[in-house]
What does this fold into?
Amino acid sequence: MDQQQINKKIAESNICIRCYENIYDGIEFSWLACIKNNNNHKNHFKMTQLIYSLILLFGLSFIGYAQNDSNKIFENPPDSIPKIFGKGIISIPDRYEYGLSISPKYNELFFTEGNLGLMVMRKLKDGNWSKPEVANLRGTNSWEFEAFYTWDGSKLYFSSDVNDTSRLWYSTKSVNGWDSPVLLESPVNSTPVFWATVAKSGTLYYTNLANFQIYKSQLIDGQYKETQKGGLRFGIHPFISPDEDFILFNSKGDIYIAFKKVDGKWTEPIKFGNQINTLEYEETCPSLSPDAKYIFFSRYNDKNGKSDIYWVRSDAIEKIRKEIIE
It folds into this structure.
């Protein structure tokens, strides 16, 4: 499907931006999943938020969910074969989950759920984890999604709508938790954008929705003053490594990696093998654990074509790097 066909489908179906990303990425079911039956997807989100909150409150108890169960989310980590992450706790049957981000201290995590948006879990004093709950960082019950920490954990960047357009926001960590979010004042927000990850240098990598390409912006004097293309021919949902020596992203239902060359340019994108990508299903939205030992991603093999979050050891990264060097 070329870009003209994609745009035609979107125009005919009147689809929200959160489904546009799936359509662009070749996930055909999306135009039936999120056609705007009322005003837009966000209004549908507001209508369903209470319903799904009640499901979380009562439904999880009905299936035997307990706080002690949530303590197991990091137990029995995978090797080279991906496993569902947080099965029955984070990854729930017949529900979309994607965009996992874990704090550097492993005491908080965020992920996005298809109906409620941004969800949060926190480690409690007794060592257990809280139940997933809607993050509501802005405090306005707005649609929020795709939150990612800076590598030192001092800030959290996430996407949320302003006048029905996806923009980047950030919140700063304080002794009392996350401060009230601030809309990023930067040319970055001059177009619709989402999914921002940050290198240790402060350079921001994100998806520009005006052309569905990966862009970046360097931190200069504490500000993101300019934007430029990220140097990759294709792809969305970039996850930049701490030292900017490699970048993960997805395109057309597969997850790729590119490495930084001596001249500062990226290598040609390399598709991960069947350790991560499958022929039968779509894989999207890659991210890394804080220690870079694990890759997290979404696989669309749940009921009704929905996605669960998977995790797998990141050994494949160094294997691919070594093959390139040799």
